[in-house]
Design brief:
Layout lengths: L11 E5 L4 H12 L3 E6 L2 H13 L5 E4 L5 H14 L5 E3 L8 H20 L4 H30 L3 H29 L12 H10 L4 H19 L1 H14 L5 H18 L4 H14 L3 H27 L4
Parallel strand pairs: 1-2, 1-4, 2-3
Length: about 325
């Protein structure tokens, strides 16, 4: 390819985030056009990998570590480049923060949409299952994205193990949280809590469905419900006891008493919801310490889940008398 029309000889080009990816490709292209390339990255590990990559590509590049969100650090880097290489003639602002706010707001509104569907009764069983499945894919993409970034920055693939542990923790946390939320609605009224089904009801529904994609997703939902049942033995005993005494017509005083106690646990349960975890995720990502979110899900939220389950089972035991 003839690059004579893009002659950059004698020019100093600074490409932020140029240790890899798009920034690296831009920098190599500018070097081929004659520019002296300077690149920026966030840590020493990326700097070493970047220098090695440029050498392999046959480019003599100058690397600098600086946080592009810190104005003082950027000014110091530019001054150092001017002193060591020369004044910057070309600046490519390749590095930056991904604006996750629209994505987070979109999913918060999606959660609100799910709650409105429960309260109004305008919904379908398969729609609810697909909604949850889409949320799982959304979070799985985030865990993988974090792991890819961290493995590159720190030079180890162990972050993928943390991603798997975070994903499994998330599945269990979301499963039990959904169960408790739906149960609370059931104790408001049978209609509003119509999604709260026993394992027997789910299995019967799955059995009568025709073969197809809906039956497949309902099969997954069957295992999802089985986990909820196995994790809450006292809750199951309470429901069996209430059903034996009152059938589907649980007295209002019992409903009110249950909701009152359940409401006290919601402050903890809300930490395990989508809204609760994404707000923490957003703050952690802004600090740049992405690895900390894995620890938050694996350690902090699992401790919260254990406390909630213990308290909820104890609450259910009080209705067995």
């Amino acid at each position: 390819m003839n690059l004579s029309a893009f002659d950059l000889k004698g020019k100093v080009a600074l490409i932020t985030g140029g240790a890899h990816g798009i920034g690296f490709s831009i920098a190599v292209g500018m070097a081929q056009c004659g520019a002296t390339v300077c690149f920026n990255c966030s840590n020493e590990g990326s700097l070493e990998k970047g220098i090695a990559a440029y050498k392999e590509a046959g480019v003599e590049a100058h690397g600098y570590v600086a946080d592009v969100t810190d104005e003082a650090a950027v000014n110091a880097m530019v001054a150092k480049i001017k002193e060591e290489v020369g004044p910057v003639d070309i600046l490519v602002n390749n590095a930056g923060l991904m604006k996750r706010v629209p994505m987070i707001f979109a999913n918060i509104l999606d959660c609100v949409d799910g709650q409105l569907a429960r309260l109004t009764g305008i919904k379908s069983a398969i729609g609810r299952i697909l909604d949850g499945f889409a949320g799982d894919i959304w979070f799985a993409s985030i865990y993988i994205g974090f792991a890819l970034r961290l493995s590159h920055d720190y030079g180890t693939d162990w972050f993928f193990a943390l991603a798997v542990l975070s994903g499994l923790s998330h599945l269990v946390q979301a499963n039990i949280t959904d169960y408790y939320k739906t149960l609370h609605l059931y104790f408001i009224s049978k209609d509003k809590g119509s999604e709260f089904q026993s394992l027997e009801q789910v299995e019967a529904k799955h059995k009568e469905m025709k073969y197809g994609i809906n039956k497949f997703f309902y099969f997954l939902y069957r295992w999802y419900t089985m986990l909820q049942v196995k994790a809450t033995p006292t809750l199951q005993s309470m429901l069996q006891n209430l059903h034996a005494k009152y059938g589907d017509n649980i007295p209002e005083n019992i409903r009110v008493d249950f909701r009152k106690q359940s409401r006290h646990l919601m402050r903890y349960i809300d930490l395990l919801t989508f809204n609760g975890r994404t707000m923490v995720m957003f703050v952690i990502v802004l600090t740049g310490q992405v690895w900390a979110y894995y620890l938050y899900e694996i350690i902090v939220l699992n401790i919260v889940l254990a406390i909630v389950m213990r308290k909820h089972e104890k609450m259910c035991a009080s209705f067995l008398g």
